[in-house]
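look at this stuff:

>
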Amino acid sequence: MIKQRIPLIILLFTAFAGPSCYALGKIYWYNDDYTYAFLVPAISIYAAYVILKSRNITLLPALMPGMFLTAVGGFIAIIAYWYNIALLPYESTGMGFLSAAGIILIIYGLTLIYGGFPLFAALIFPLFFLWFAAPLPGSVFNYLPLSLKAIVSIGSEILLRIIQIPVFREGNLLNLETASLGVADACSGIRSLNVLTATSAGLAYLMNTGLLRGTILFLLSPLITVGGNLFRVTLTGVLVHHLGPEYAEGFRHELIGMTSLLLPLAILIGLSRIMYRPPLQTEECGSNNFLLSVLNRGNRGLNLTGLILILGIIAQFAIHSHYDSFLEPTTHRKPLKELPERIKEFVQIRKDDLPKGQFKVLHPSDQTIRIFQTPDDKTVTFWIFWWKPALACALQSHTPDSCYPASGWRRISQFDITDRISGIPASPVYIRLFAKPQGQKMVLSWHRGDKRLKPPKGIFPKIRHLAKTWKNPDTDRHSRFIVTMETDVKTSPENARDLLIRFARAIGPLLKAYGL
C-alpha cells in the first residue's frame, strides 16, 4: 500500500506545483537574467542522487515540522498564484519569488516527513541550491540593477580618466569624444551576478571547501562580478575611443560582453581550486538502500500530505475559473494588423516587425510597427504593443522614459509634457525630447499598466486588497498596452511636437476598437 502511495504523492505534488512551475519557466525563458535557472533543479536532483547513493542514512521522520512546512509552503504558493491571476497577470517576476519559495518549502516539508532531520542534513546542499532558481523579489530586482549601474558608471569613468581618455558622465551615460555609452540593465551585471553566485555555491560544494571557505567564496562572487563588469565597460570605452563607435554595438559589443562573465568565472574557478580540500573517505551504502527504506516505511504523513496537495489543486482551479470569467470580455478586440493604412493626411509607407531579440523580451500578444508620411514628407514612426489578460511572462519596461536613455539618448527635460491633451483620448500623455550627437527625436506615448506597479504597501493591506478583487476584479489592470510615436526633429522641437499631437489626435479615436 505504501509503495502505491509514494508515486501518488509525487503525482499530486506535480499537479499542484505545475502552474507555478509553468509561470517560473516563462520567467526563465523570456527574461535573460534567469535563463540559467533551468539548470538549478537538475543540478539539485543530481546532487541528491549522488548523496543518497553513497551514504547510509537513518530515517527518523519528523511529522509535525514536515507537515507545518508543507502547509505553509502550499499557502504561500496559493497566495502567489492568486495574486498573479487577480492583480499582476503580466508581472510574474513580482510574485515569482513567492511561487518558488512555496514550492521549495513544500519540498523541505516532504523531506522532513519521509526522512526527518538526518535526511534534511544530508541533503542540505541540493535543498539550499534550489533557492537559486527563485527570481529575486520585485523590490530587490528593481533596486539592484540601478545600484549596479551607478557603481559601474562611476567606476568606469574613474578608470577611463586614469588612462587619460576624456569622458563626461551624465548619470549612467558616459560621453566620449566619438560616441556616448549608456550603461543599460544588460550592462549592469545583474545577469552575471545571478549566474556567478550560483556557480560559487556549486564550486564550494564540488571542491569540498568547507563552510567557512565556501562562505568566503560565495561572498566574493558579487565583488568579482562588479570587477568583471567594470573591465567590460572600461574596455568598451577604450576601444570606442581608439577604434570607433562600432565597438559599442552589434557583434563586437556582444563579444566584449562575454568578458564580464568568462573572466569572473575563471577567477572563481581559480579561487575554488586554491580552497580545495580532499574529500574524506565515506562509507558506501550497502543493502540498506535509502530508496528501499522509504518505500518500506509506513508514515502517517502520507494521507495528510495528499490532502493538503489536493486542496491546493482545487483552490488553484477555483481561482483560475473565477477570474477567467471576468477577464473574457477584455479579449474582444480587433487585431492590430487591421489598422488602416491611411489616417487623414497621414499615409503608411512601411510596415515593420518587432526584432526577434525584443520580441523574446517583451513577448506581446499583439503588436504593430508602422511608418506614416504627410504630404510635405514628414514621417512618424508609430508602434503599439498589447498584452492579453493573464499572460504569464516577465516584461521589462518599454516606455520611452526607460528605453531611450538605455539606448544612449539624452533626455531634454525642458520639453517634457506629462498631462492630458485635448483631442487625445488618453490620460496622461507623455511627450519627451531625446538627443544624441547625430540628432534629436520627439516622442509621444501613452500606456496602461502603471497602477499594477504600485500595489498597497504592507502585507495586510495587500491581502485585504486581494480579497476585495474576488467580487470586484480591477479589469483595467489586466489590459496592458503601450502606444508610442516618434519623429526626427528637423526644424524645431515645437514643430515636431505639434506633428505628433496632430497624428495622435487623428489615430486616437480609432484605437478603442483595438482594446486601447
The longest helix spans residues 211-243.
